[in-house]
Every structure is written in structure tokens, then in C-alpha cells.
TrEMBL record:
Gene Ontology biological-process annotations: translation
Keywords per UniProt: Ribonucleoprotein, Ribosomal protein
Organism: Prunus dulcis (Almond)
Parts forming coiled coils: none
Family: Belongs to the universal ribosomal protein uS2 family.
Annotated Gene Ontology cellular component terms: mitochondrial small ribosomal subunit
Name of the protein described by the UniProt record: Small ribosomal subunit protein uS2c
NCBIfam families: rpsB_bact
One Pfam family matching this protein: Ribosomal_S2
Domain of life of the native organism: Eukaryota
InterPro entries per the UniProt record, alphabetical: Ribosomal_uS2, Ribosomal_uS2_bac/mit/plastid, Ribosomal_uS2_CS, Ribosomal_uS2_flav_dom_sf
GO molecular function ontology, one term from the record: structural constituent of ribosome
Length: 132
């Protein structure tokens, strides 16, 4: 599949993003040139990045959209939900990707505690384990 074909499918099927709203939120800023090492310039290419994203989308890969700025958080969440992607729009926790096994077990434990709290069958927890 060519990039235009994939983009057309993504536009019609999933994406309904208001670009003006995202530009107002500052999603397009990224890192300033003073925040990256000049020796990395040969490895930074928007064209290659777009090609990589479109190729991955054509193969049905999953994406993680990260936008933790206060202004961009709502736009990122809406765009990711519409595109059926995973997203992080609050605080990025260190090791979330590199230590995924531990992160996943903590998320499952948190989910179980929330369901116990909602159903009322929560057991007695020590002070540090209570949910407020």
C-alpha cells in the first residue's frame, strides 16, 4: 500500500481531528533545536518518520500518543480515542515502556482495587494501601 492509500483509509475510518484546535494547544511544537544534540541531525527526518508511521499503520501496528502539556492533553486524548490508539496525556512515569512488566502488574492491581471499592467487597487495607 502506498502512503496516500493508507492515509485515505485512516482519514475516512478513524481520524476526525481538528487541526486548528491541536495547533492552538501547541501539539506541533516538539523539542526546540537547542534541546537536542546537533550530532543527531542526520538521524532526524520528518519524511522518514512519516513513512515509518504510514508503513506501520498499513501493517496494523499499534501506536502510543504522548502529550503531557496541559493545553494539549485534552486534544491528544480525543485524537487518540478517535484513532483507537493508546495514549498518555497526564504525567509520564519513568520506566513505563522499559519496565512494562512492573507497570502492567501495578495497573492490574489498581484496577482490581477500584472494582473491589465499587462493589463494596474491599478487604481491610493498611493505611498506605487505602484508596481515597
Amino acid at each position: 500500500m502506498h502512503r496516500k492509500e493508507v492515509w485515505g483509509k485512516m482519514t475516512r475510518r478513524y481520524w476526525n481531528i481538528n487541526l486548528e484546535e491541536m495547533m492552538e494547544a501547541g501539539v506541533h511544537f516538539g523539542h526546540g533545536t537547542r534541546k537536542w544534540n546537533p550530532r543527531m541531525a542526520p538521524y532526524i527526518s520528518a519524511k522518514q518518520a512519516c513513512d515509518l508511521v504510514f508503513d506501520a499503520a498499513s501493517r496494523g501496528k499499534q501506536f502510543l500518543i504522548v502529550g503531557t502539556k496541559n493545553k494539549a492533553a485534552d486534544s491528544v486524548a480525543r485524537a487518540a480515542i478517535k484513532a483507537r490508539c493508546h495514549y498518555v496525556n497526564k504525567k509520564w512515569l519513568g520506566g513505563m515502556l522499559t519496565n512494562w512488566y512492573t507497570t502492567e502488574t501495578r495497573l492490574h492491581k489498581f484496577r482490581d482495587l477500584r472494582t473491589e471499592q465499587k462493589t463494596g467487597e474491599s478487604t481491610v487495607f493498611r493505611k498506605g494501601m487505602r484508596l481515597c
